[in-house]
User: Fold this.
Amino acid sequence: MKIITKMSLFFTLLTNIYATSYVLVEEGVSLSLPTSKIVVFNGTPVEVFSTNGDNIKVAIKGFMNPSDEKSLYATNNLKLLLAQVPEGNFIKKTGNQGSLEIEMNKKHLVESADTAWEKSADRFYEKCTKCHAAKVVKEHTMLEWEGLYESMKEFAKPTDDDSANVLRYLRAYAKDGILGEGK
Ligand code: HEC
Assistant:
């Protein structure tokens, strides 16, 4: 009985330590970390591996363009930016994938993907449901959304900040996005 309790405690700790969290940015779609100047984008999934008060050490994993050592993307089509670093050697590279370890204040992290993406989702509903009901995001791929968005832009009259939010939202929740169908 005691052993089982200890084991379940151990596994609870383990899953907490390696839990996935999501970056939440208050203003705009990205934030620049104060000392490292690494730019992290809203909604980026991170693996939390240690906590020290308000400081959380996390890893961001993603895909890279062979000719750009400074950007990490969510998927291998390189459409959704997760992070950008000032120096190439910040990201550990393995083939076309990369991993970046950073420290963040816990106020920038939330446990639910939908909470992190809420602000961008609101912008999508605000800009894209004036003339028709909301289109189902997971019914299209990221590439299809790019074309559809381009044709709707003239109707929706988005600001640059609207576009940044809506496009990121569409790409994250697209059929082939990190939060799309079956994810
Ligand atoms: C000023 C009106 C207006 C706004 C704002 C608007 N749309 Fe549309 N949209 C239309 C019309 C008109 C159609 C064609 C009829 C239909 O499919 O409902 C359409 C069609 C669509 C379609 C279907 C196209 C196809 O080929 O299947 C998608 C997807 C779409 N809109 C997405 C969006 C998105 C995303 C936004 C926000 C950026 C947006 N719309 C904002 C008027 C608008």
